[in-house]
Design a protein that fits this description.
about 45% helix; about 350 residues; Sulfite Oxidase, Chain A, domain 2; transmembrane; OxRdtase_Mopterin-bd_dom; 5-stranded mixed β-sheet; Di-haem_cyt_TM; alpha+beta; Fumarate Reductase Cytochrome B subunit; 10 strands
């Protein structure tokens, strides 16, 4: 069986493969950054400035994943005639090629499909998404490297300048790029403010500051006898409100890709530590009144505890925090994932 369509030409396949590789690599690197911030090894360092840094990297992660969907479909359409080639396996390199394509296709679909469901917070599976997503990402990258190594001669030949490009092939490539671009524009408003009015498919783009986990879902209620324990020194809410306050415009940047800025007012963590006799720049473990959440504690590294914009926030946009936003106080630190901006704080433990 012969397939002569321009969409199946090796030049079209290689060109789309190049674009898809860039999208996957971008998605992988930014995803690796996010995972390492949440589970940092001892050698890892993540800066607190610029304040939008995590917002940018995680937004790029999700948007590059969205851009990869049309590219992956076009790539599979371009190469599917190879499924009908006979014999099925001609040599060891050919077997490696077919195996890498099978593994790559499965891993890519797993990453993109589960990623889309994750941004919608719709979990139709029993496994823990972050761990599975992280593990399969390495499988996808490994299969890409094997595929490139096997197909490198073909890729190099196909990417050479074509003095007489086929108009049909150019139309197919142009359509693929437009589809990928449209997918980006339709969703990028979750993290790019000026696109929110045109991103029809953007999630969490409504007015107001979104909430992922409510106080009711976390089982948190406020006790009037609440106090904050900072390295053994106790502070009442009235004492915190009487301390010098700092207001900063900081984004909540969620791992699902959406982000939104608000004006946060509270006591700098550095001032709190100093008041408790602890040197600012010391790492602290933040404890929440939430009892069983996966992120009921978080660690603020020294880079953030010394930053004057890392706040124990008491107010949002001039109003006292609502319960869903972490009343009586929450962490708001620059360049941090939203899941690490711990709410309902009751203790700061010096590490």
């Amino acid at each position: 069986m012969k397939f002569t369509s321009a969409a199946h030409h090796e030049k079209a396949t290689s060109r789309i493969g190049l674009w898809l590789g860039i999208a996957f690599l971008t998605c992988f690197v930014t995803g690796l950054i996010s995972h390492t911030i949440q589970h940092p090894p001892s050698w890892f360092f993540w800066p607190s400035r610029p304040v939008d840094l995590y917002r940018i990297t995680q937004g790029v992660h999700v948007v590059s994943g969205v851009a990869a969907i049309p590219l992956l479909l076009a790539k599979l359409w371009s190469v599917y005639p190879k499924l009908f080639q006979r014999p099925l396996v001609r040599s060891l390199p050919h077997a490696l090629e077919r195996g890498s394509i099978l593994v790559l296709s499965g891993a890519a679909f797993f990453e993109l499909v589960t990623g889309i469901f994750n941004v919608a917070q719709n979990y139709l599976w029993s496994f823990y998404f972050p761990d599975a997503h992280y593990a399969v990402a390495w499988v996808a990258v490994g299969s890409i490297l094997v595929h490139i190594a096997v197909k490198l001669p073909v890729i190099r030949r196909a990417l050479r300048r074509d003095p007489l490009p086929d108009p049909a092939r150019r139309a197919f490539l142009r359509t693929t790029l437009l589809a990928s671009g449209a997918a980006v524009v339709a969703t990028a408003g979750v993290t790019v403010p000026f696109l929110r009015d045109v991103s029809a498919l953007a999630w969490r783009s409504a007015t107001g500051l979104p909430v992922n986990r409510t106080a009711a879902a976390a089982g948190v209620t406020f006790d009037p006898a609440w106090t904050l324990d900072v390295a053994g020194r106790m502070f009442t809410l009235e004492q915190l409100a009487a301390m010098p306050q700092t207001t900063a415009d900081l984004p909540i940047a969620c791992v699902e890709g959406w982000s939104q800025s608000a004006g946060w007012t509270g006591v700098p963590i550095a001032d709190l530590l100093a008041a408790a006799g602890v040197q600012p720049g010391t790492a602290v473990k933040v404890h929440s009144m939430e009892r069983d959440g996966l992120y009921r504690t978080s660690v603020l590294p020294g880079e953030h505890t010394s930053d004057p914009l890392t706040l124990l926030a008491l107010r949002c946009n001039g109003e006292v925090l609502s319960m869903d936003h972490g009343y009586p106080c929450r962490i708001m630190a620059p360049s941090r994932p939203g899941v690490l901006q711990t709410k309902w704080v009751n203790r700061l433990e010096v590490l």
